[in-house]
């Protein structure tokens, strides 16, 4: 049934005919995208027009019109969009007649289950409401006539648009502030794993705001790519509405595969990348447009005063030189009048470096002129180009907007072709705040504050920019990245030795943090392995700074004073090895506190606990220690200690950061062996539990009167489930230690994970010498140094059996 056929049905059956035609239209896959939205709007227009005609006749009302506003006014009807309608009347009919007309319009819409945003106003009321409410004014800018007296709609549209232009100096700053507040609440669409397509910065609301700015005649957005970006977001929203059957704008993780399939996109990652690219286009257009609005408003306010001072003459814009061919004008970086981009291939980098160093935006016109005219740089780059790149990267926070301006016009991928593969690439890890490309830039920003710590800041900054450049290639991104980094560093003009250093930094950018948090630093093999990989003290210095910059640029969960102290300790030990100092450790000596706890455990024949902050002061009851506190436990050696302690801590919602287990001999004349556990723990939320409560539950767990498995299963059952996690992976770390076998477990973090692992290791009959627990977001990577009953590393077959047992235990229990 066509929209014309719907409009010719009787009034009683019109709603049913519209509903059937609407359903058929939404089921026609061939009519997706703009054609379907236009057809849906036309179908709805015809139905509402017929509805209005019959309702006006029945209510005896003339001098009224029905208008579509907002998204419906723009003809952007998604499958579950609201119908934004305004009933306008000239005031000649009685209030009861107008109310009857409205009821005859709104109730059929509600009866079909359609969402409706409606109002009834005279033109004067509509104008007053728009003056008082910015959002109403914005909606009326897109008003479109549906039925009734067309002159009413035309007059109101003209008046509202004239008011908008007259009030632009007041309205546009309000709109800018509204957009900023929304961005603070919703985040940036181009970086979110579950973005709101409408409300997040760079989404459909911002695209609508740009239309409103253009309607003011005060400024206009750069239009290249803007229409396509808007269309892409609308297409994704349509598919989302159809996939969920709901009026939602949030692209949740569980819906992304279905939306990608509906749009004919390869997978959810490609879908997100397309969404990010669209959002980036809209965000950049917004930045440029709002900057232009500010410039125009400042010029307007200053012009009368300047004309008075100059006797009516117009002042020439002031231009301040910043670099060869680059000047500042009116708060932006522009090209000098004498600049020759077609003869100066270094000019884009020189202009970008000057802008970042000055903390100024680079003008849209300048970037476009550079993109259109500049010649490619020779390979290898001249020294000036390399120096300007380093200057750009070392400018700190002001690097980001300048980099985005170059990227918007394709200059970054022309300078660094390998950038294309990481551009807008999503990172499906809750720890990561940014896409891959933005993370690389943010790492350089963080590294810029650490350049005083290293002898070669240029190598640090370039390595920061390239450290994840291998993401998107098959296999280990560090291995792939090393190859790419060698090529890029050579192309931009570093010598052979410097290229080798950059390659090592990229290849091993995760080495320090992974080793510090997952390996036993008291094991000589650990420190020697890092020293061999790094090679020199100067490279170690650079790698230490890169590690910190990378973690800080990842997100708040990736770095803490605890991680920093572990990495610093490792760097100190590796530095000693590289300086030729011996690495054989002294046998660990128990502290006075540890001896006291061991003696108490021997006397009571039960566990003794102490919670301590990073200082020697005991933790006060109810204290909050988000970075973790030290938990010392002394207990007579017996089976089941590790799973019991891990289970009790999980039951009390304590996260384990590190865990060391060792047996100590009590001094004569007491004698005997006590198991000492020195762990770092932190509360998931709230305050730390009392040590007495922990001890009481540990006693019950050890004697079997506390059913830990059931308690932890209850917690697991109550836990809110996210997307399906990949299966756990358990391996033996090769050559990690000569003193023990290192079992590494990678799994989805969950309550009781460490308890289940400990229980399986106990069942396998191995002894845990130490455990190193690392949790990033939803992922846990735990390393266990285990030996046989004689304190020796496991044989190959035994180790394989332990690995398979842990995998089965975690797989069967949802680990």
TrEMBL record:
Positions of the HD domain: 436-543
Entries under SUPFAM superfamilies matching the protein: ACT-like, HD-domain/PDEase-like, Nucleotidyltransferase, Nucleotidyltransferase substrate binding subunit/domain
Assigned keywords, A-Z: Hydrolase, Magnesium, Multifunctional enzyme, Nucleotidyltransferase, Repeat, Transferase
Keyword check for Hydrolase: yes
InterPro entries per the UniProt record, alphabetical: ACT-like_dom_sf (IPR045865), ACT_dom (IPR002912), HD/PDEase_dom (IPR003607), HD_domain (IPR006674), NT_sf (IPR043519), PII_UdlTrfase/GS_AdlTrfase (IPR013546), UTase/UR (IPR010043)
Domain ACT, chain residue ranges per copy: 630-713, 742-815
Reactions catalysed: [protein-PII]-uridylyl-L-tyrosine + H2O = [protein-PII]-L-tyrosine + UMP + H(+); [protein-PII]-L-tyrosine + UTP = [protein-PII]-uridylyl-L-tyrosine + diphosphate
GO MF entry, a single one: [protein-PII] uridylyltransferase activity
Ways its activity is controlled: Uridylyltransferase (UTase) activity is inhibited by glutamine, while glutamine activates uridylyl-removing (UR) activity.
Region (Uridylyltransferase): 1-321
EC number: 2.7.7.59, 3.1.4.-
Pfam families for this protein: ACT, GlnD_UR_UTase, HD
Presence of keyword Transferase: yes
Cofactor entry: Mg(2+)
Comment text on domains: Has four distinct domains: an N-terminal nucleotidyltransferase (NT) domain responsible for UTase activity, a central HD domain that encodes UR activity, and two C-terminal ACT domains that seem to have a role in glutamine sensing.
Family: Belongs to the GlnD family.
Function in brief: Modifies, by uridylylation and deuridylylation, the PII regulatory proteins (GlnB and homologs), in response to the nitrogen status of the cell that GlnD senses through the glutamine level. Under low glutamine levels, catalyzes the conversion of the PII proteins and UTP to PII-UMP and PPi, while under higher glutamine levels, GlnD hydrolyzes PII-UMP to PII and UMP (deuridylylation). Thus, controls uridylylation state and activity of the PII proteins, and plays an important role in the regulation of nitrogen metabolism.
HAMAP family with a match to the protein in the record: PII_uridylyl_transf (MF_00277)
Protein's recorded name: Bifunctional uridylyltransferase/uridylyl-removing enzyme
Organism of origin: Streptomyces melanogenes
